[in-house]
Amino acid sequence: MSTHREQVEKAMLRYFGLMPTEQRRQVLDRLGVDYGAFMTLVRQAWEAEKDLPEADVLARRLGQIRAHVKGSRLGKTGRLFTLRHWPEARKLQKQGASYREIADYLREFRRFKISPAYLRRLMEQLAKVTQ
Fold this sequence. Notes:
The protein is mainly α. The protein has helices at residues 4-18, 21-30, 35-51, 54-72, 76-94, 99-109, 116-130.
């Protein structure tokens, strides 16, 4: 079940993808994005995934799906955390931040309130699922 926002984003992406190349270039120029650099990043991401063996691609994608499936069972806060803040929290944890520091960071800079104990449980569960 997707939210209204997800449906709107998918519709906008389809619209952008069906635009002629020149119109896409103009839209990105208006946003201040260098079209050549944008296309280089897309090509690099595509080639990086293309070069992976099929088993690695499937394992990585399955890990992402499991993380979202597990997150959906955790309620609204858990879903929002997995969709919006999980990658950033994981980076902070790798840099040595404690769960309390990560919770304070999310509260201060992302306006996302979560208790350190619940954050710890979420991150440990998601780490198990994505490995």
